[in-house]
Amino acid sequence: MFRSSRRLLAGIALTLVAVLAAVLITSTSQAGAPVAEPHRAAHPDPVSGRPTVVMLHGAWADSSGWYDSAEILRSRGFDVMAVANPLRGLTSDTAYVRSVLETIEGPVVLVAHSYGGAVITGAATGLPNVRALVYVAAFVPDEGEPVGALNELNPGSLINEQALLVRPFSTGTGGGADLYIRPEIFREAFAADLPARTARLMQMTQRPLSAAALGEPSGTPAWRTIPSWYLLATQDRTIPPATQQFMATRAGSTIVRVRSSHVAMQSQPETTAAVVLAAARAAR
After folding, report:
1. pLDDT tens digits for range 125-141
2. Type and span of the H or E element at 187
3. DSSP letter at 46?
4. Residues spanned by the domain of 62
5. The whole model's pTM is what?
6. How far apart (Å, rounded) are the C-alpha atoms in residues 67 and 74?
7. Domain for residue 10, yes or no?
């Protein structure tokens, strides 16, 4: 029994010696060989890739209004980001959106609706990554112009003092007044070509605009140095089509007309996406 155990132990010892020798030989033969780097995922150069499409809503709306047009763009391979517009004041809204744009690598096509147009007009100024501006039935102010003054350029808007419900608000350190579109005028003035149920839901969930935003003057406009496109809503009863035409022409925008209410990105998402795609092709 003991002899068998000694033979077994001796066999194990010889096996361990052989394995150790093989390891040493292998290590020695590969000592001069290059060591493979662990695999790292490649990151495409953002400058040469497709631009990121950044979308900004306006007053009495939210980012969900971009859903259909954003989905079309996403299906075409674009990254899309719909930013929440604070709607607290033109200066602060512009600063906030600019801070978001500064975090995005690579080229940007910046798209805005309604009051959002005034915001991107200032937010994009001097940012080299913003290659194109797209205005969808939007305000396009020049330096020193407030949005409220632009809305009074031509007759035809149903958004007036009688159409707005004023609600005072407090921030704890200050306060102001929020403006809502009254339920009885909302669909006719804002979304006449959308189903009644959709317009009713939009009215109930509308995000108010601070009244102070209408009187703040715009800064240096980005459209002076960045090419722009304008989707002009010919049936708009929020921003009169004549005012849209004036602003787009002054900015030197490429103008596309669409038979639509104020919310062209919802009633005409294919046309909206097509204008953004045209801007994206030019921005690459």
Report:
1. 999 999 999 999 999 99
2. helix 183-190
3. T
4. 52-283
5. 0.83
6. 10
7. no
